[in-house]
């Protein structure tokens, strides 16, 4: 049975095909990690990137005031390093993947080097670039190979394990 499409149906078919193709390209970009968020561009998950970040202050539970976690006159403190991590899609073998962002949000524009994290027995089924993040010994991981992380910069990487590791800043050196 032969079907003749009207010009409106042909236009609708071409438009639908274009929309589906665009959706597939966007999904591929999302899955491979190529994204753009305003001024922030991420091309590879194991790379150092920069973007705008704001300093968020911790609430003081006793007074209800918002206070920074630093002593008067300090250039920077451990609280200037913020760690975000969350699950992403699992590997083919079902092992979860976690994305980690380690940001320098120093409001005074300071560079922070020798960033060490408490990380337990951190390990990954997926290779993590050791220049970005490596475990030196139990509960001691080094960020950015000890090099300075300037204000507003972010180090990002992914690791794969059956559970997420609790990562927290243990020490920093202010520059």
Task: Give a written overview of the molecule.
- With 175 residues, the protein is of the alpha+beta class.
- It has two domains: 1-32, no CATH class; 44-174, Immunoglobulin-like (Sandwich).
- The chain has one helix and twelve strands; from the N terminus they run H-E-E-E-E-E-E-E-E-E-E-E-E.
- Strands 3-11-7-6 form a four-stranded antiparallel beta sheet, with no helix packed on it.
- The termini are far apart.
- The model is unreliable at 34-67 (pLDDT under 50).
How far apart the termini lie comes to: 77 Å
Largest β-sheet summary: 4 strands, antiparallel
Radius of gyration: 22 Å
CATH class type of the largest domain: Mainly Beta
Oligomeric organization of the protein chains: single chain
Helix tally equals 1
Rounded mean pLDDT score = 78
Number of β-strand runs: 12
Protein name: Protein TAPETUM DETERMINANT 1
Organism: Lactuca saligna (Willowleaf lettuce)
Keywords: Membrane, Signal, Transmembrane, Transmembrane helix
InterPro entries: TPD1
Give me the secondary-structure topology.
Layout: H1 7-32, E1 35-37, E2 40-42, E3 47-50, E4 58-59, E5 66-67, E6 81-88, E7 97-104, E8 112-118, E9 133-137, E10 140-143, E11 153-160, E12 168-174
Antiparallel strand pairs: 1-2, 3-11, 4-5, 6-7, 7-11, 8-10, 8-12, 9-10
Protein name: Protein TAPETUM DETERMINANT 1
Pfam family, one: TPD1_C
GO biological process, one term: cell fate determination
Label this structure with key terms.
signal; transmembrane; 2 domains; 1 helix; TPD1; 175 residues; Immunoglobulin-like; membrane; alpha+beta
